[in-house]
From TrEMBL:
PANTHER family the UniProt entry points to: EXPORT PROTEIN, MAJOR FACILITATOR SUPERFAMILY MULTIDRUG TRANSPORTER MFSC
Stretches assigned to coiled coil: none
Transmembrane segments: 16-40, 60-79, 116-134, 146-169, 175-194, 206-224, 236-253, 273-297, 309-329, 336-353, 365-388, 409-428, 489-509
One GO MF term: transmembrane transporter activity
Protein's UniProt name: DHA2 family efflux MFS transporter permease subunit
SUPFAM superfamilies named among the record's database cross-references: MFS general substrate transporter
Organism in which the protein naturally occurs: Cohnella candidum
Keyword Mitochondrion: no
Amino acid sequence: MELQPKGNIETSPRKGWAFFFLCFGVFMVYLDLMIVNVALPDIRTDMEIGIRGLQWIVDAYAIPFACLLLAAGALGDIVGHKKMFLTGLAGFTLASVWCAESSTLTSLLAARAVQGAFGALMIPVSLAIIRLTFDTPAERAKAIGVWAGIGGIALAAGPLAGGWLVEAFGWKSVFWLNVPVGAAVFLTLSVLMTETSVRAKRSFDVVGQFLSIAGIACLSYGLIESHSLGWDNPGIIASFAGALLSLIAFAVWERRFRDPLLPVSLFRQPLFLVALLVNFLSFFGVFAVMFVMTLYLQNVNGLTAFETGVRFLPLTAAIMVMTTIGGNLTAKIPPVAMIPIGAFAAGGALFWLTSLEPGSGFGVYAWPLLLLGIGLSLAGTSTTVALMNGISPERAGMASGIANTFRQISAVVAVALSGTIISDRVRASSDAWMSSLSIPEEWRSPLQETMASGNLNAEAWRSAGLPADSLEILGGKTADWFAGGMHGAMVLSGIAGIVCGLISLLLLARRGAKRNVRGSAAPVIPPITAPSQPK
């Protein structure tokens, strides 16, 4: 099962232009992951939904994106990276039209799921193309730095562009933006880029793909719906049980299948474990922050969508700058030092954000957001460069798919868990207050879900029988309850960052790990041979 090169991106300058547009396609996918956040309050108002609906809008994209990244990396190695990338780009662009034309939550969620599925086809194969195109570690580090920098630019542009588009043209415009850009990138890459590789005689792991989707989907459903149905609800318990059983079955199956999506033998490699931990634990924080603070800034502090995007600049600009220069930094400072430092910095920044209160000014959260961006970039870029330098060529697509999968799973869990923490806090704090005002039982759950998004729906409260003189008091209480829940989400995210730093220190300190991470000639993750069992 050898990698069969079919060619390369053409030599410079054509190679440079093809690489530029390849990164532009990646930019689209990451932009759409972040640009929707600032549109959530407007979507909530337009579709009259609560925090559960907002969580599903984010996770409907992230769940298929996370689940299919493994398959995309493997399929790219089988059928060719160019073919896989262009297929994903075409489907992503068409799904964006569907998102823009959606008028109901059900339609929007379905469109977002399709959009995330096709977006998943693009990311791992783009990194594999870079790995197979740039031969020397120095060139590869610079190219990966640019690739990561494009993602950073998308992260910075998302809130700003999204805020401006929402204010000028409405929330649907954040999806229409993808259509002309996607068409231009597709046509250009069809001409400039040739196929980079095809991996022959390899089977696709259908069972493993199904089990991974089932596990992640069940986990997400349980986390998001638990605050509405209750943690002891039979459906929630069954959902978590289904997630556990699916993931156990996935691990067992992957040990037996000849060409697994996730080779279990990889987990014996310290660097690979660190890559997964960094992609999950440290990035858990940024996804939680972007989701929770968007609701905080717009619904609690009363900022517009564009003003919200501006307030995120310390975070997004730091990621954009640091990921752009991260490849060069990794060539000078070994990842064994940069990864823990970045994780600790990100964890500390998240604890710092617990100082936020209703009405806090920009100066209160600008510095911790800046530190969070720097920490995430140091850890993330160093991990990516070290992993790509250490992986064998025939596993480039698979390894990048696995690493990105864990990052996207962190997005799913971060949004689901942070929203649930806030909802539980609001529900626990408001139950007694509602009882004292004799609010009817049938009104409590929908009103609490609205408050969990940081928003006070005055008209709904009037319909529920709340006296007019109590509305102003309730507005202040809603903001306090939301801030308390937000603090809980930040503490959990901060703990994740610190744990990531500690575990990466322990794993990289193992015998031989430091030498390999510093860039020895021997591959950190050797080629994987198929087990003796037949398929």
